[in-house]
Amino acid sequence: MISSILSGNFDIYSFLLRIPVVLLALSIHEYAHGYAAYKMGDPTAKYFGRFTLNPVKHLDIIGTICMFLFGFGWAKPVPVNARNFNNPRKGMAITALAGPVSNVLLSFLGLILYNTTYLIMTQTSIIYNSSEFVLNIFTVLLVFFSMFHYLNLSLAIFNLIPLPPLDGSRIAFVLLPDRLYFNVMKYEQTIQIILMVCLCLGILDVPLRFLITNLSDGMQKIINLVIGLFI
Hints:
- This protein is mainly alpha-helical.
- Helix content is 73%, strand content 0%.
- The protein contains ten helices and no strands.
- The longest helix is centred in the middle third of the chain and has 36 residues, at 88-123.
- The chain is elongated.
- The chain starts with a helix and ends with a helix.
């Protein structure tokens, strides 16, 4: 259902609607990192002006372009000083997870709003008694909410890949021996270039879209279950 909406005749509108979606998704993602770190005793993000929802403070040019072109991307990592945590490994893991978790919640919200809009269109007489303008407004809302759902879910899953500069690499800090972890992080720039090449060539498309589609379907089943209790 979501993919079919995005593949309609709204190419130009979809690109324009993608702008606020990407800005919101990336900004809230990074703010969540800073908020989690701050709540656990690390004010580094606040000192560097990253404890904000202002997208200008968070956007990574390459990561943002990838988000627009491929639906997968990243922002500038929020600075974190693990020494400010009572338990550095646990603190880093929670801080890293906060971003993807925020996007999963936003994705769920987008799907709820999509379903609500769809139900209003199909289960009430509002569309039949309205002008073409109102119909177009509802259709654009469907496109926006479906895109909001899909891109936030994409951002969450992609950032959990355990490679720098993604959040999964910070989570790996908890799981890997220090020596192995820092040996990998030495090649962060090289890994980032390889990651971009994989995105451009579509090498990651199949596994990532498999995960996204199945998680999206799972979310939809939960919403259908809830809707079935009231309708």
